[in-house]
Amino acid sequence: MTQKELDEIAKKFKVYDSDVFVVAYPKSGTTWMEQIVHLLRNNGEQGDQVLSEAVPWVEGAANRYDGLSHLMKPSSPRRYFHSHLPYSLMPGVSHTKAKYIYIARNPKDNAVSFYYHCCSKLNYNGSWQDFFDLYVQGKVGYGFILDHILEWWHASIFQKNIIFLHYEQVHKNIENAISQVANFIDISLNDTLRKSVATKSSFASMKSNSLANLDWVPQRKGFPKHMRRGIIGDWRNYFSDAQNAIFDDLCKKKLAGTELTFDFG
Ligand code: A3P
């Protein structure tokens, strides 16, 4: 993403109070939450659009969807977007009543998922160790994960228009997460809708759903697809003891003085 594209968004992207944004650091369950909100607003039905059109990507607009103008729809029906932008660059967040659903994932699992993303979608050729070194320095897209999460977490304490959820919490009790999200975006929920959304947003169901699995995004052969494993604790299959120690130290320093914790599985 270029500075010009970011400037365009800041200047031209008009946010309405009725808008809903799904926000996450990349590889934290963005698509999963998009599917949940999309099903909620669509009475549990998938419809016929691919997810990335039904819940378009704000900062990806310059390269996809014929530019920002594609996103400039009227405020009704309610607009839904997704984004990976940090709080400080997010349109509308501090001065509108638009709703922002932030999903955070434990950074160890995030690192592994991000590594595969870079290999399969961005032609990254480095080893896991090479990637790890870049990741802990924040030299990856959207910068260092803990800076991203902390900025949103702090804002969510004071702003009623932000809900802060953890990937692991959604994983362990999806029906509860669906209720929280529905309540936050004022969508009335009954048992049938809750169960239908839970079923259609399960990992297995999304993986086999050509409108939700992101298989349409070009990627390198021989690497895992977007719907890769979807589990908590996969990092244990990749992190060496030394990498784990570096990471724990980093988390300790960054999270000192906050009450933010992660479930590492
Ligand atoms: P893994 O690579 O660990 O499998 P994003 O959409 O932000 O890019 O996040 C992608 C990660 O979310 C991938 O993690 C993907 O498998 C996981 N994911 C997507 N849908 C999921 C679901 N329904 N349940 C659990 N994990 C899901």
What features would you describe in this structure?
The protein is an alpha/beta fold and 265 residues long. Helices cover 42% and strands 7% of the residues. The chain has 11 helices and 4 strands; from the N terminus they run H-E-H-H-E-E-H-H-H-E-H-H-H-H-H. It has helices at residues 3-12, 30-41, 51-54, 107-121, 128-136, 145-158, 167-172, 174-184, 191-200, 203-207, 241-255; strands at 20-23, 80-83, 99-104, 162-166. Strands 2-1-3-4 form a 4-stranded parallel β-sheet, with helices on both faces. Helix 2 packs antiparallel against helix 9 (191-200) and helix 8 (174-184) packs across helix 9. It binds adenosine-3'-5'-diphosphate. Adenosine-3'-5'-diphosphate (A3P) binds at residues 24, 26-32, 109, 113, 116, 201-203, 206, 227-230, 234.
